[in-house]
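Write out this protein's structure.
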Amino acid sequence: MDSGFDLSFRHHHLLGIEGLQPYEIGHVLDLADSYVELNRQPSKKRALLDGLTQINLFFEVSTRTLTSFELAGKRLGADVVNMAVQGSSIKKGETLIDTAMTLNAMQPDVLVVRHQESGAVQLLARHVRCAVINAGDGSHEHPTQALLDALTIRRRKGRLEGLTVAICGDLRHSRVARSNILLLLAMGASVRLIGPPTLLPRAFESYGCQLFTDMAKGLRGCDIVMMLRLQNERMQGSFVPSVREYFHLYGLTQEKLRHAAPDALIMHPGPMNRGVEIDGVIADDIDRSAILDQVEMGVAVRMACLDLLTRSIRGEAS
């Protein structure tokens, strides 16, 4: 009997890109590709996760990530529950371990967690029996965002290997940046990091990235320009003199974009601050901007992750 365990993805949880092998990343992207096509059909639902329960536990406010995971679960046939943290026992002083024990008693099959503290999702994963997906923890990782970004690039450029990707903005506080750096380097891309010195940790050099504080130099010849949101909610103190000066030096404009390759793709994980990280005209450029593609790929990638992480459960059930 087929156990349902996928030999191309040997993980019980998806807690980060760190620890994934290139062939595992490629396997997720290949499966997600098939879900892109499903999502473009009039009938988008499958009964793959029929009878399984997915709980989305978000300690941080989210719109697109939460909606994307909810759609992904429902399109695969799961029973999806969004836990309202604001009104829960967690806000009344319940510890994360207590929460894990409570969730175990509910017998969920998949837990999707976003938390404001780095490492909190890993802690929770050690105390629950179900599969856990990290939907973003502090400044640590956001693996499904990196996977959807990679799928977007691969579908538009045909490959990841050999591309030069510039990631620009608030590198210090961005979990999206860290996951993307790990994934892109693993898949053979070159990564340049661009930002003000206060938001550009030198430690990233040890990853194999090139660091730039000058936007024109950093963007020269790049195939992909990935802009990051200023993470004001994570900043303790002043990291930029003013929004106006930040946009002048590090916001993506037509003038700065001319330094990149003529067919360079523009990306942003959202939500965008127009006139801060990116000029609105560039964000809306239907030929160069892949920002809406990223949103579409997000549902497909999360469907693929839910599919892979539940294969052992479904195998046992059969």
